[in-house]
Amino acid sequence: MKIHSLNPSTMEDHRLYRNIMFGSNGLKRDERELLAAVVSALNGCEYCINTITLRL
After folding, report:
1. Is a pLDDT exceeding 70 seen at residue 16?
2. Contacting residues for 49 by C-beta, under 8 A, at least 6 apart
């Protein structure tokens, strides 16, 4: 992961994302993606919305 960033400490957020989206919890993967789409829409992140909707 360190090679993906000039500031490796920023990659901690990416690890958190991967744990939330791909780890085992009470939600199915498509439910997690849907929640991510809603949060991205509320945050107004067009990049995230476009990326997530491609996976739905």
Report:
1. yes
2. 37, 40, 41
